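In response to reviewer comment 3 from the previous cycle, which asked for concrete evidence that the modeling workflow produces usable outputs, we include below a single protein chain processed end to end. The sequence was submitted unchanged, and the resulting structure tokens are shown without manual editing.
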Amino acid sequence: MIVSPQKASRIPGTGLRKVLAASVALVGLMSAGQLWAFNLDDVAAKAKDLAGQKYEAPKSNLPAVFRDMKFADYQKIHFLQEKAEWAKDKTPFKLSFYHQGMHFDTPVKINEVTASKVEEIKYDPNRFEFGDVPHDPETTKNLGYAGFRVLYPINKADKQDEIMTLLGASYFRVVGKGHVYGLSARGLAIDTALPSGEEFPRFTEFWVEKPKPADKHLVIYALLDSPRSTGAYKLILRPGADTVVDVQSRVFLRDQVSRLGIAPLTSMYLFGPNQPSKVLNYRPALHDSEGLSIHAGNGEWLWRPLNNPKHLAVSNFSVENPRGFGLMQRQRAFSDYEDLDDNYQKRPSAWIEPKGDWGKGTVDLVEIPTADETNDNIVAFWSPEKLPEPGKPFEYAYRLHWTIDEPKFQAAELGWVKQTLRSTGDVKQSNLIRQPDGSVAFLVDFAGPALAALPEDTAVRSQISVGDNAEVVENNLRYNPESKGWRLTLRLKIKEANKATEMRAALVRDVPVEAAKPAQDAKQDKAAAKHAKAEKAAKAEQPAADAAPTNGTPATTEKVLTETWSYQLPADE
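The workflow returned the following structure tokens.
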């Protein structure tokens, strides 16, 4: 009951006291409910408070037996699934935990959020089987967890599978139905690939909302901290054929940074068809991702095949208000990898879908030399043109798709790059023997439903551009009946091998220009308008520059048929 001032005087004193008491009780209940409505603002308040304090590096409490162990020994420490958080509750999600060990040597605080309280999930060594790892139970009783996993019956209704893991710095990995773990996402990247060295912000505390029995999503909050940044994150995990993570972040800088990476992705590329292995290997390719895909704010689509260069390579793609970008694994056949152990064909792509306008900036690609597949050597992120001021919050929100259905994240009306092949360039001699001519050849297959719908005799042509470090000696385009698309063959002669060479290509064709439709004339004026138009045309001495040719051939315009293939041939290759 809401009491208006005008009517308050009409209520007897006792009745008024009862009304006021009821109102106070109602407000108290509302306040109690609001108190436990934990949200991003609660974490952001902690982040803001931290930003005003001097950074304190996390302290390790790990005994030497765990800190100095090898990876094989770390793998011997098994979490007991029957002791997962919520194991006995009818919740669709469960949590299991990582023990500290090796370089995972500092604990993170993990809290459970319910409708009535926030409570820390305490470390319990009895949740682990340590195998033959020697340890003193007394020294481990207060260690804390290194991170956690999210379990969910994504593949079978009666089996809890890992669908998300959060371990180390601000890294997290996610899979959908039928996927295996591949590339990673991060909360924030600072000064990546700069001579000053990269700073790795770290999630130091988590809050996980306990799900209801019918919930199809899990909410996770995280507090981020580093020497020059703090931040609050909300992650909403939605498992499925494609698993989706909705990310909302509010970040504060303690100090100036030179390069800020928003929505960073980290992956691995060792070799593939566009950069074959230097040593004999039965695998045609070995990578978690094969290319960077960008959907620019102006509608352009770009595909950049990845490299494992001999020298650090950084590429910046200017984009205003990106519609999406991601590190993609387009090859999905087992024969593309031939690896029974690591199943690269099942590793997901990660596609970033920004929420709102992000303004001017660049999508940055960092490619780092690596000798083997154990090192993540690929990084991609959005870098804003205008860096935020220290102390002032800045927010970004985006949806992160983990998928093995890449065509969903490609333009349906455009063809896309099915594969890029690199080869020694050669020419066929009169005796039909191929002779290397000192060039390098690239074969780019453009495919997809939009191209398959075109007759094979369609007058498709290539539109290419090559940097000044190369000379084009062949530009050949032909229909590919196997893919129902077109294959572009480029042969280039590199001028200076110690320099990288940029190249781009897309397919286009000419289509008739549609005549502008005249305004509807009244019925009685149609004949007069037609006569006046004909008389004016007859008096014209010269056709307009953009008019149809006088021989009756219709005017045409150029139509782009594919995404843009953008490749960098690394230096010293």
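The two ends are 79 Å apart (CA to CA). We consider this sufficient to address the reviewer's concern, and the full set will be provided in the supplementary archive.
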